[in-house]
Design goal:
The protein is an alpha/beta fold and 187 residues long. It is 34% helix and 26% strand. The chain has a seven-stranded mixed β-sheet.
């Protein structure tokens, strides 16, 4: 779909999926699936579970519908249009929820974390992955419409939304593609 996006995000996708420990029967939600490579990786880990992708872009949804037409027909992948601020899913629908490089665009960070928590089943895990403010400031296009975060700024939002066992790691610091992973559980 978007080979460059998929290649640039490969390491953070793998780190994210490793952190949330997806089981074969899980129902998983990816918010802002972009190039689609995480959807494909999650689908490979599932036997009876499903992975759902939601994205703001009608283009991304159309491309994913085409790219994953077999997996969609088999019921392993679902994709749809939607906004993290008001996710189009019933409460307690997913065992795992993750999003990579979308937090920069959230209008109300706390509300978005509350939405993630709402759609998680009790005991479910959520993860938000991003690159640091220091790293992103070096990229010219992030000066327009991006809200940048330092490693210690995201964890308090997740805790305030009521997640438990909130933890944050900052890997590959000082490199072009550092990654901050913030995860928590719904009690």
């Amino acid at each position: 779909m978007h080979p460059i996006l998929n290649r640039l995000n490969r390491a953070v996708i793998e780190s994210s999926l490793s952190r949330i420990k997806i089981e074969p029967q899980h129902s998983v939600l990816e918010i802002g699936f972009g190039g689609g490579s995480a959807l494909a990786l999650v689908a490979k880990r599932l036997t009876t579970g499903t992975v759902t992708g939601v994205d703001l872009s009608p283009d991304m949804v159309r491309k994913a519908e085409y790219q994953f037409r077999r997996e969609i027909a088999d019921g392993r992948i679902r994709v749809q249009l939607g906004d993290i601020a008001a996710l189009p899913f019933e409460s307690e629908s997913f065992d795992r929820v993750f999003t990579i490089n979308t937090i920069y665009f959230w209008q109300d960070t706390l509300q978005c974390f509350l939405e993630i928590k709402r759609v998680l089943k009790p005991g479910g895990q959520a993860l938000v992955a991003l690159r640091s403010r220091e790293n992103m400031q070096r990229v010219a296009f992030t000066q327009h419409g991006f809200r940048l975060f330092s490693p210690d700024e995201v964890q308090p939002y997740m805790a305030q939304a009521g997640f438990t066992h909130v933890r944050s790691t900052h890997a590959r610091q000082g490199t072009r593609f550092d990654e901050i992973l913030v995860s928590g559980c719904k009690g």
